[in-house]
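pasting for ref
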Amino acid sequence: MFLGFGKFAHQRRLAKGLRKRPLDRATVEELETVIDMQHKELPWGVLWETMELSEKAKSEVREDDPLHPSLARIFRSSIWEIQNRSRGSL
């Protein structure tokens, strides 16, 4: 199934929203909620893309920016789920 039209197209668009500058607060907050609530259902590709884009966005945002903690939580949650899935597949 092509992910662009699949079940997780909305989540994929949210992850791609981390590419935009300046970052949209609503997109970051919604992505944080999705990662917290639906992390077990998200495909590997969406998790991986979210991890990479959140790490890049976090490095470009100053630490005193209100979005920095949200980006850090998104990164931490996505890397945690990727690591858990990797351990489970061995």
